[in-house]
Design goal:
Layout lengths: L2 H10 L3 H12 L2 H17 L10 H30 L11 H9 L9 H8 L3 H12 L4 H8 L3 H22 L2 H8 L1
Amino acid sequence: MNERHRAFADAIEPALRGLYAAAVRLTGSSSSANDLVQDTLLLAYQSWERFDAATNIRAWLHRIQYNAFVSQYRRRKRERELLSRDATGPEYEPLISEHDRRCLHDGGIQRQSLTPTINRALDRLPQEFRTVVIMADIGELTYREIADILGCPMGTVMSRLHRARRALAKDLQATLSPAEIQAYAA
């Protein structure tokens, strides 16, 4: 292993588990997550000379991964649009699986560990609020990391997260009984 490979491998090692966990949430499956992580690492390795060691490598890798996911999503969307122009009739319905429909609906973020009530409340949030809640509260990313990944100021992330949590609390209070609220609070 040459010096460049060793330096890259040593630098990314602490971030691999977090990259995989984020990839699973984005893609919804472990095999797709493995592919996304591999694509991320390939892109990161190709850009390794441009990485500034004084910056946060975890945020840098997550930003690359998020961009790779969005690029793949857009490519698949264009492919489906092309197919739908050519494909008419019920025999083409199975081209988009139920899993793909769910991924399109929620940005591909897997939320299986949450209760159905919380998932429904998350689904009612605007996309920009839902994304920051999932990254911060489920993905456990810092405000700075989320801002770097989304390419927006940290204040915007904090504002969106505050508004999203307030909207979720209001929605859940209207939906849940007092006993259920107590159960979630415990």
